[in-house]
Every structure is written in C-alpha cells, then in structure tokens.
Amino acid sequence: MIKIFNTYSRSLEVFEPHLPGHVTMYVCGPTVYDVAHLGHARTYVAFDAVIRFLEFMGYRVKYARNVTDVGHLRETGEDRMIVGAERLRKHPMEVADKYMMEFFRDMDALGIRRPDIQPRASMHIPEIIEAVEKLVDKGYGYVIDGSVYFDISKFTDYGKLSNIKPEELLMHRIDSDPRKKNPADFALWKESPPSYPFSWKTPWGRGFPGWHIECSIMSMKYLGEQIDIHGGGQELIFPHHENEIAQSEALTGKKPFVKYWMHTGELTVGGRGMHKSYGNFITIQDALKTYPSDVLRLFILSAHYRTPLDYSEKAMEQAAENFEKLINFFENLSLIAEEGRPKPRDPSLDELSNVFKQSFVEAMSEDFNTPNALATVYDFIKKVNTRLDVIGHEQATHLRQLFLETCRALGLLQKIERRSSAAEVMEFVKMLVEVRRELRKRGMYDLADRIRSMLAERGIMLEDTKEGERIRIVR
C-alpha cells in the first residue's frame, strides 16, 4: 500500500488512482530562458524516482512534463522569456529552442526518463484561447481592454491548496492592474504591447497567454480532466498551482482537478536558495563535469523529496563514497557469478534477500522515502559482504539481479553495463593470479608480492585461502 503526502489535504493518503493499475502524472517543466541548475535536477530526479517506483510496483504511468516558452511572468511583471532573449540578443523562440534542447540533454545525462509527452506552451495557443473564452462565458473570466482576468470571488475553494487566506492574497499577487475587480484576480490572457514578440489574435485583441492557464490546458489535453498526480517545486504552490486548480475546475465543473499534489523542497547552498544573484548558482552541466550522474542522484535522493536539501562538498563526497559502495558490491557479485564458483545455496541469504526487498518497498511506499530506501540498500550490501566466501555463482547471480532491480527503481546504476564487463576483468585477473602462483612455486616471492600490490592499488584484493586465491573488489 503506497501512501502519498497530499499538499492539498496536508496529510498522508493511501494512493488510489482513478483507474486501478494506471497512473496519470503531470510535472511542471522548465521555463526555457536559461540553463538548468541543480535546483531543477532536485525536482526532476525526485519525480523520476517516483515514476520508477510506481512502475516497479506494477503501475502503468502516463507522464507529461511541459515546456514553458511563453507567458511566464516574474513578480515584477517581466516575461522571463523576453528577459532571456534580451540578454542573448536573439528572438525569444531561438532562446527557447536553444535552452529546451540543453535541458533535454541535461535530463538525459542525469538518467531521467523522458516523459511520454513533452508539450510546449506555444504550440497550444488555440486550445488556450478556447478555454479562456469558455471561462468568460461561464462568468469566471472578465475582459479589461485586451486582457482577461479570473475572478477568484467566483471560485469558493480558492486558497485551499496554499492555505492562504483571502486577506493575505494581496501580499502575493504579482499583477497590480488597478482596473481589476479584485486586486487578487489573476491573468488568463494578457494584452501585448506594441512590437511585443509574443502576440496572437483573439476576440479581445492581440496578446499572449497567462502562465497558469498553459499548464491547465496542456495537462488536461493529454491526461484528462482529472489527473492522479501533479508535481512541482514548493515555490509553485502559490500562485501557479492554486490558479491551475481554480481555472481547471471552473472549466470542467469536475473536482478534484488533481487527486494528489506533490511538491519538492528547495535546494540550498549554505542554507540559501540557489540563485544567480547570490553567486551560488550551479548548472547541471557544470556539476556533471565533476561528478558522475549517479553521484548527483545519490546526493538528491539522500534527503526526502519534501525536505530542504543543502548542497556542499561534504555532502557530495559522501554521495561519491556511497556510489563506490554500489559499484564495488555489483562487481564483487559479478566476479563470483561469472567465475562459476560452485557452492551450495545458502538459505539464510534467500531470507536476507526477501527481507531486503520487503524493507525497500515499505520505505518507498511511505511517501517515497528515498533516504530510508537507500539505508536498506546499504544494509543489504553490508550483510552480504560478510558472506561473500560462501556465495556460489547461482546465488550471486540472483543477488546481483535483485540489487540491480532495486537500484534501478531509484534510477541508479543505469549505465553499469557500459563499464568494462566483470568477465573481462576476471579473465585478466585470473591470468595474473596464475602468473603469481607460478612465481611463488619458483620462490620468486618479491615478484609475486609485487603483482598482489599492483592489483591492490587498483582496488582488487587477493586473499590466499586453503581453497586457493579469493578475489575481492574494494576500491
């Protein structure tokens, strides 16, 4: 039984999708006006783990993640895409194309599974205009010159997601147009000023969509009028997701628009949010120059997705150490599996495997608790490592498969086949072991010890036992 913390109810709820065995999921994607940073990585790695675990548990997930390439306004009223275009002195759509492709490459590099659908806001303008017309016809929207606003007084549940009271709304509203009925009303469609690069013809004149209506329309077009899971960063709870609920439920008359709202915590550096103005902005591309993608994933998954996560060199070093644990364990099991070591099956290891899988599932089923899930993985590694001497090749194969399945439910060790295969390593090591054995027979102990030392320097330990040499990866 999977439980999800629902931001809307502010409580853990048993996960029951609308259609048993099937999950519809929408996560707010990037505004492609600049390169993606580790804050983006935190959100998308976390939701990637959610999707992978749901599939691990047998669900079929239909996943959409949008691209915002028009209409994302700052608190100052500036359009982020226009700001990016002015910085690069290019047309906004050139900027959007450039950073969208870079974002896709970053996600691929992090091993984040591509969504089933990746809609662009600018490709859905007709549907957005039609939806705004319907909201006006139903009395939820009203026109001021060429702009259209949503009348929040007509939607009685407004503020329930964010838990913001009506009297507090003015502190959060970004659009200060004095002509609005209520200062807290938000834009569905904005009139474009002369020579504005984003402009489409509508019944109200030329303009461009509000940011919030874009996600409502794209999510409902591809996933239906009622979605199982909608996710994003905590900074999107208000106003973005609050407004999505209002306009979507006003359009369809169906509640709830989203059954489970999920939000990731902030990524900080030294306790401060990651922003260019603070000088602590780390792009995904720069981070990947220093650390493998699995190390970044382990760092992100080391904290529960809802909690703040602080970036530091110490935290990254710990993630790198944990990555080596995973790799060494995999390669030790691979050496045993592929050398054909005949050993009787150890029933206690079968029991250990069952307990491990059950513990892993229980951890992830409790609101996708990745730190607890990783703790079960590390504990499994520790316990199996003490029994490597008694494991035969058949049981090693089983243990390795279980280990990979659970790691990949978190998106880890996806590229491990691309490393030098354990079989190739084993053949080379066996050759050196035979040379060392012959040297010892001839009394050439210095050379034999030199081979042993050279292997140890590369993380391959030789242990002389009554049954012969035992090989172990420890790097």
TrEMBL record:
Location(s) in or outside the cell: Cytoplasm
Motif ('HIGH' region): 30-40
Cofactor: how and how many bound: Binds 1 zinc ion per subunit.
InterPro entries: Cys-tRNA-ligase, Cys-tRNA-synt_Ia_DALR, Cys-tRNA/MSH_ligase, Rossmann-like_a/b/a_fold, tRNA-synt_1_cat_dom, tRNAsynth_Ia_anticodon-bd
List of residues binding ATP: K276
UniProt domain Cysteinyl-tRNA synthetase class Ia DALR: residue ranges: 359-421
Record has Iron-sulfur as a keyword: no
EC number(s) recorded for this UniProt protein: 6.1.1.16
Enzymatic class: ligase
Coiled coil start-end: none
Cofactor: Zn(2+)
Keyword annotations: Aminoacyl-tRNA synthetase, ATP-binding, Cytoplasm, Ligase, Metal-binding, Nucleotide-binding, Protein biosynthesis, Zinc
Binding residues for Zn(2+): C28, C215, H240, E244
UniProt cross-references to CDD domains, sorted A to Z: CysRS_core
Superkingdom to which the source organism belongs: Archaea
Similarity-based family: Belongs to the class-I aminoacyl-tRNA synthetase family.
Name of the molecule in the record: Cysteine--tRNA ligase
